[in-house]
Amino acid sequence: SMGISVYEKSDQASGSFNQGEILEKKPIGFPQDGGRLKPYSNIFYWAHAWTPDKKSTIGLHPHRGFEICSFVLKGKINHFDTVQNKWIPLEEGDVQVIRSGSGISHSEEICDNSEIFQIWFDPDLSKTLIKEASYSDYKSNEFLINSSKNKVVKNIIGSHSPVQIDSEGVSINEYCFEIGDHLIDINEGFIHSIFLMEGIMSFNGIEYSAGTFFTAQLENCFQIKVLEKAKVFEIISPINPSYSTYA
After folding, report:
1. Which range has the worst mean pLDDT, 5-14, 15-24, 77-86, 107-116?
2. pTM > 0.90
3. How many CB atoms lie within 10 A of CB 71?
4. 212 to each of 29, 142, 196, how far by Cα in Å?
5. Any alpha helices (H) in 58-199, and if so which ranges?
6. Cα(4)–Cα(24) distance, integer angstroms
């Protein structure tokens, strides 16, 4: 189908920190990272980072303008920033938002055998570069969960979520799909960015394993068959934001 694109792990940029103590795959990397997919919508960067073994720290570094969102997928992280000026622990399912504004520096320790997404949203830098930086973290139990017979949906950003970001029109869901056929509705005017976190699913008769990334737009729905219980992370964002993005 025309509106659905697949980016396998081999299409994604790779990265690492501290001689491989932290490894990364990036569905959307920086221009110099060389992945197949460039920034789109108001999503500027998306990295999946993990520690294959022991904990490791990414030292203090600055951010400006962008909203830097970290989602703890497994294990835990400890986070330090120059606004709070203290170390804060975040555990599986927790979310952290750094509205980096006119500038903030932070450091993160990814604990042993832990995994995160770090995703940068573009909130209209012409406005945010002159705003004071701010920071929020949200605990896993603050998010609304809806269960039906064959799926569980956790709303991480959206109308029922406590998470506030400036980036326009963004919502985020996490799905747990049981084995069988599933539909993900595609919203008109929006692009759905879908990361298969766990499990195996097939689309158009081809099987895909964890780490595969999909974009879906200009269709009514994304039809998948789940072959092994799957966990899926979805960002819905405007195809054409109302402002000029940095990209």
Report:
1. 77-86
2. yes
3. 20
4. 15, 28, 6
5. 125-128
6. 24
